[in-house]
Amino acid sequence: MTVEMTSTDTLVVGAGQAGVAMSEHLGRLGVPHLVVERDRIAESWRTRRWDSLVANGPAWHDRFPGMEFDGLDPGSFVPKEQVASYFEAYAKRIDAPIRTGVEVRRVTRNTGRPGFSVETSDGMIDARRVVVATGPFQRPVIPAIAPRDPALFQIHSAAYRNSAQLPAGGVLVVGAGSSGVQIAEELLRAGRAVYLSVGPHDRPPRRYRGRDFCWWLGVLGEWEKEVAQPGREHVTIAVSGARGGYTVDFRQLAHQGMTLVGVTQSFENGVAAFAPDLADNLARGDENYLTVLDTADAYAARNGLDLPEEPEARVILPDPACVTDPVLELDLAAAGITSIVWATGYAVDFGWLDVDAFGANGKPLHQRGVSVEPGLYFIGLPWLSCRASAFIWGVWRDAQRVAEHIDTQRKYFAHHDAIQHGRETSAA
Ligand SMILES: Cc1cc2nc3c(=O)[nH]c(=O)nc-3n(C[C@H](O)[C@H](O)[C@H](O)COP(=O)(O)OP(=O)(O)OC[C@H]3O[C@@H](n4cnc5c(N)ncnc54)[C@H](O)[C@@H]3O)c2cc1C
């Protein structure tokens, strides 16, 4: 039996935005490459997000530099299907060599020669270099505290589509980052009784003084920050583009009927226990919010920007009863809760990479995406080079740097080959 073998200089695994960006930059530099994708282009945007999701950043911001969203108001928030179509159109426009429906199952380093042997669902690929673009959010994580009660419907935010998916009754949403808070609000609007478990978070203003927070983070240099503030690496950001975009305000949600609780700690005999940290978490979220306003004001003053004042943005609503008299224990059945939505984030899954490129904690060892394993690269991971790395516009720039690194390596080897070849010619 003969096994079909494809050869390429650079193999990109994954055709989400990271893989498409890689292909654009590699193509520009003339690096022969191939992108393989197990599903469809931008599959995560199509099938791993809830139905009503729109991009968190406005259309002018959450895109690649080379193409705008056709026919959309630049200030609008693009529905997830259109984000997926955008990347599909982008891949077509740059003529990206993408093979869909091909899963990479194993990557091993060649011995005695550079490069990797790549086992896929469609045969072997011999690649001099491999770029891992399989996403920042691969494996939905539900913490071990999840109750083992078959009467409760439990779902991760990655599998949540809409309120009709859940059985009748109340819902506990665990996690109040962008996913958790948006899903909780959608459920509340659908008439559900909603309990939202709120941990430490940042909640930047959606807009301030006439500019979107994406603009403020840009001019204030926040997107470019290379390391998260110590101790705040796991703080989620509660921001939403839904219904034209609004500032997430947990107190307002509570005044609308949502019950806020602190961090979910355990479930025992049908009773959920919450940490007494809700007021603290909200206070720290407010602090973050007000700091953005202060920094924005200082920036506007220093640079003489003529932006309308917005003192009303500093008004913090009074604490609702669930904050002043927090729920620390909740009998789920007695409260009518039939579902739990776990908006508790994701882990990465690199089990298919049989290479020596990971630290003791299982995280890839790399510098700005250039792995410690020569010829292996990562792209699209959170904080790969900076805060923007896992976001649409940030990954495009990181991909440019990684492609340049690959191009430079190719030049070193071209030089080496030329010397070798000269030696062989003179010896002949
Ligand atoms: C709910 C949610 C909302 C978000 N909203 C925004 C937003 O508004 N703006 C923004 O900038 N960012 C947003 N992000 C962050 C980020 O932009 C997305 O997660 C985006 O999908 C990441 O793109 P990616 O190409 O790195 O990964 P993905 O889009 O996940 O693409 C990775 C691809 O690799 C493929 N793949 C994986 N393993 C293999 C394998 N072994 N072989 C072959 N193919 C494989 C997958 O099928 C997938 O298509 C959001 C994230 C989430 C979870």
TrEMBL record:
Which UniProt keywords are present, listed alphabetically? Oxidoreductase
What InterPro entries does this protein map onto?
Auxin_biosynth/cation_transpt, FAD/NAD-bd_sf
Coiled-coil region(s): none
* Pfam families, A to Z: Pyr_redox_3
Q: Which domain of life is it from?
A: Bacteria
Gene3D superfamilies attached to this UniProt entry: FAD/NAD(P)-binding domain (3.50.50.60)
Q: Which GO terms describe its molecular function?
A: flavin adenine dinucleotide binding; monooxygenase activity
Q: Specify the protein name.
A: Putative flavoprotein involved in K+ transport
The organism named in the record is: Paraburkholderia caballeronis
